[in-house]
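Second attempt. The first submission of DUF7314 domain-containing protein had a stray character pasted in from the spreadsheet, which I only caught after the job came back as garbage. Lesson logged: always re-copy from the clean sequence file. Corrected sequence (90 aa) follows.
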Amino acid sequence: MADEFIKGLGIFTAGGLGWMVLAGWYRTESFESSQQLVAPVSLSDSATMFDTMGVLLMDTFFWFTIIGALTFWVLIPVVRQAREVIQDGS
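This time the job returned cleanly.
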């Protein structure tokens, strides 16, 4: 169980840090506003390919963080417990 926890924590930390860095670049218009990191992305017409890739990577980091952590913290332990119950019941 500790192995799954640390894998989930690593995914949560790395993915969350990646998302926070990119969200700080692309979602924070000013540091005086109350919508830091959660404001809608506003790319100008002069957005480069790297800006587009950054926004795509930001969304990828977000979902990797959520799905990866839930997989190691919830899904894998539930499957293992269900396997044990099925094998003990047979």
